[in-house]
Amino acid sequence: MKQERIDYRMGLLTSPSEVDAGQWNALVAQEAQPTPFLRHEFLSALTATQCATERTGWAPRFLTLVDTRTDRLAAAAPLYLKSHSYGEYVFDWAWADAYQRNGLDYYPKLVCAVPFTPVQGARLLAVDEHARRQLAASLVALAEQSDVSSLHVLFPTEDETQALTSLGMMRREGVQFHWLNDGYRHFDDFLSTLEQKKRKNIRAERRKVHEAGVTFRRVRGQDATHDDWRFFHRCYKQTYREHFSSPYLNLEFFRTIAQTMPENLLLVIAEREGRPIASSLVIYQRDAQTGGTLYGRYWGALEHVPCLHFETAYYQPLEFCIEEKLAVFEGGAQGEHKMARGFMPTVTRSAHWLAHPAFSDAVARFLENEANLIHAHVDELREHDPFKR
What we know:
Blueprint: E1 8-13, H1 21-29, H2 40-48, E2 58-60, E3 62-67, E4 72-77, E5 79-82, H3 93-101, E6 109-112, E7 125-126, H4 129-145, E8 150-154, H5 158-165, E9 170-180, H6 187-191, H7 196-211, E10 214-220, H8 226-242, H9 251-260, E11 265-272, E12 275-285, E13 293-301, H10 308-324, E14 328-333, E15 344-354, H11 357-383
Parallel strand pairs: 6-8, 13-14
Antiparallel strand pairs: 1-3, 2-5, 3-4, 4-7, 5-6, 8-15, 9-14, 9-15, 10-11, 11-12, 12-13
Helix pairs in contact: 2-9, 7-10
InterPro entries: Acyl_CoA_acyltransferase (IPR016181), FemAB-like (IPR007434)
Protein name: N-acetyltransferase
Keywords: Transferase
């Protein structure tokens, strides 16, 4: 039987508001690895609150394929025209520097990603594999036909990475640290699986916070007040201030997602003597098959208390994972210190295309060597996992 030909109409949108939210979210919902960060509400909030716009170096160029038979969205990708490399968490500053030293422009470039969000998940949303292949091919063709130095797809799934590399893109790997819920009944049940020294250290860290008179409130998104969000944003800004950098997100962004996707948000607020002193925000996604995932995102403190960071950003969210039976806690970018707290190394992926043939060859050789080093590093880390033998 001859397969029916499907024609797609390609679109390049300068704002998420130009695509139907229901149709976009329908594509997200059917993905094998859906994340709340790909939801229309999250991406729209980034643009509507001026966090990811042309002014901030994240000009939206969302790529869409519409089925001409039904006039419905068949595939889509969050694509941005970038004038810098901030907020990506897959670092290509050395590549940009090499271009500059050779009198070439590295910017603008195209980046398929969720801004400021180092989270693995689908990047090529599609109703089926045929539409996904067409979207991948359209993405590469768009880069080849545009006046850009390169195309970068950050934190895609393994299947997407394979589809993109089959079209000539280069694979790159990195490392994050994720905690897996092995059906733990409570926090002490988890601690019992760790080596004695690790278990003792965690208990000592929690005790220091408790003895400092700090208590905690876990506030679900739908219960958080304006004052809660205002305080969290103060903490968030303080973290950037301490690192001598500027925050990517504003209070309006957090208030917007609190209104549009509160079921995915949890604030942890630390208090002492009736005053809030620190806060963290985690975002989570329930899944009927896997149990769901919690994503560590942001934290900050207005007062110094020993070990407060670990309690607010790790141990309180871990307890929440266990209570809610969430299967995975993704700790975010970097951080080998997370291993001592039960987080294990996990390989992440990205895919890259460079227009300049000589630089493309040089980067390909670099990525091959880098991958060997990463695999060796992950193997070494896993030999020193914190769990009892």
